[in-house]
Amino acid sequence: MTFDNPDNQKAIIELQKAAPRWLHNVGDKFNMGIVVFTTNNEVIYRNLKFFSHFDLPRDITSKNKQFDSWLQYLIKRGDFQENPSEEFSHKILVSLSGPSSETEFPFSTVTPPNGKILKLTKFLPSENLVALITEDVTEQTLSQESLEMALEMRRSGYFQYCMETDKLNVFSNHLKKILTPSEHRIIKSKGFRPLIHKDDIDDYVKDWANATTNGTEMDTTIRLQTENQGTLWIKCKARPQRIHAGNSTHITGFIEDITEEYKIQDELRKAQEKTENALKSKTLFLARISHEIRTPMNAVIGIADALIHHNSNPQITPKLELIQSSAGNILNTLGDTLKHSELESDTFSLDLKLGSPIKVIRNACALWTEKAKANNSTLNCHIDDNVPDEISYDQYRYEQCINNLLSNAIKFCEGGKIDVFSTMVKKDGKDRLIVAVKDTGIGMTEDQQSRIFEPFQQGDRSISRRFGGSGLGMNITKQIIQMMGGTISVKSEIGKGSIFALSLPIESEKPELETPTETLFDQIMDKSGPLDTPYQNLKILVADDNQTNHIVIKSLLGSMVAEIYTASDGKEVMDILKVQDIDIILMDIHMPVMDGIEATLAIRSSDQPWSDIMIIAVTADPQYQQQRLCLNIGMDYAVAKPVKLMQLLEGVDHVLDMKKNRGSIRKVS
């Protein structure tokens, strides 16, 4: 570019001294627009990037070499704001049209009609020159805005701390909105410490010292005392950044406001306490009602029995027997209801002692023999020689389970045959006492079998009308046997009878007998032997910080799968996967140290062979959104708490089918 004006020629010389020949190449390489003009607003240099950034028309720049004219065009076009005032335009013109102590443009970014976001920087190459640098920061700005929006939606933020300068930068639009201006200034300049609850300050100081001094990761939850919001629960995770020498120079961390989660948990805890108190009150009420009803009912039954034995009138005796039978049914229903209520409220306890299972089984059969005869049925008892003489169990509760099975069999087997079998089998290296009750009664459909162990359920309404009963016997039996670590199963066919089997893990001192070719248990199951299932070789890992849930899953699946492992948090899950082959993980969502979501993301992002392991979420939130979250982060299925056997098996079947169909290819929903 050449000019005839001597002043411009002088300016060109100054420009050549101030800016080397590679000025043009630098602008292109770093995507910078550059324009240089004199203090008289005469443009002496500009590159193509400057034109492309602002999308300036050629006729504007070719006809007029005055930079203030170019600037006036941009101002009128609305690049700086939609309706600029004269005062605003004057401020920009003064700022850019000549020497000034301000080296930064008064407005950090400008947006031309082409949609680009430009950062403007002014500097003074020499006394008579002004340079304006434009940088296209569209991508960085949009990425930053997306991050800020995501953090705000998650009630989160981030911070960076420089150890060398002791400077802390905190960004959180969420905290800025909910804190007072003074509280936000405190956090921006001094961090969280001035606002931390006095009971949390010592742990926070210790964790922060470990991060800054020892370079350890920080994962802590603190409470902030605020003026408008009261107590805020803040989760803080930070990681020191190291240089090649191994020393930490910066700490980068994320913060999340989890106050709402704590409030929900507190509300759930209060609701649970309220429910538990209600259950206890209900149990006490039922116990009082039971006492009040039993006293007059015992009198009714006793007097009716006395009159039956001392009255031979054929017209009166059947009526007395009906009174006696009806009163007995009332007491049985009352007893079942009370037992079920005790089981629900966790006031039901076991009394484990050494005792003879053989004696209990024989006594139960002897007790019900007459009842079977009254129903025109036969009752036979078969006890294998390998049944131990003594085991540790709750004799009374176990006998109650057998009585429920016999009562049920006799009720639905009028004029048929009932056989009670008992034997000991070994499964997975553990001895199990099996007691099975087989009848030739009315049997059940598959749908009826699926509901038989639910409370207040019978085969159908006609059964309830015809045979009576509360529908609680099988549910009570199932809960009692599970409390003792055992299981109950059913095999039935409509019109051909049913087999109910109790399996109880035992430890006995009786020496093992040689197993015959055909065991008694084979006879129980019509010589078909135990059926192979798709679960028998599975190794399952239960990840849950609640030990009770470990017991529940073991009770439901322990007899069906090869092995069950347990972990209390996501870190333990990762440790187990490193040393043990696992087929399926039942993953709780909320756990300490590392929760289920973090653990799943860590598993899926790893380069280990187990990165594609099948994961079933076990969540207390059955809502659609929670299930979608589980699937979107890489889990394969979700079941809701409290878990039931059928739901678990549906989940296991689902992921096994997925694994079979996809091979090694993961499909994310």
Enter the CATH topology name of the largest domain.
Heat Shock Protein 90
Beta-strand content bin: 15-25%
Give the domain tally.
5
Q: Treating each run of at least 4 consecutive H or I residues as one helix, how many helices?
A: 23
Q: Given this structure, which CATH class of the largest domain is correct?
A: Alpha Beta
Distance between the termini: 61 Å
> Low-confidence parts lasting 5 or more residues at pLDDT below 50?
456-471, 513-531, 664-669
In total, the number of strands is 22
Average predicted local confidence, pLDDT: 76
Oligomer kind:
single chain
- Radius of gyration over alpha carbons? 40 Å
The CATH H-level superfamily of the largest domain is: Histidine kinase-like ATPase, C-terminal domain
Q: What this model shows, in words?
A:
This protein has a five-stranded antiparallel sheet. A five-stranded antiparallel sheet has the order 7-6-10-9-8, with helices on both faces. Residues 456-471, 513-531 and 664-669 have low confidence and may be disordered. Helix 13 packs parallel to helix 14, helix 14 (395-411) packs antiparallel against helix 17 and helix 20 (570-579) runs parallel beside helix 21 (596-605). The chain has 23 helices and 22 strands. The protein is 45% helix and 23% strand. It is α+β, with helices and mostly antiparallel strands and 669 residues long. It folds into five domains: 6-136, Beta-Lactamase; 154-257, PAS domain (Beta-Lactamase, 2-Layer Sandwich); 271-344; 353-524, 2-Layer Sandwich (Heat Shock Protein 90), CATH 3.30.565.10; 539-662, Rossmann fold, CATH 3.40.50.2300. The radius of gyration is 40 Å and the shape is elongated.
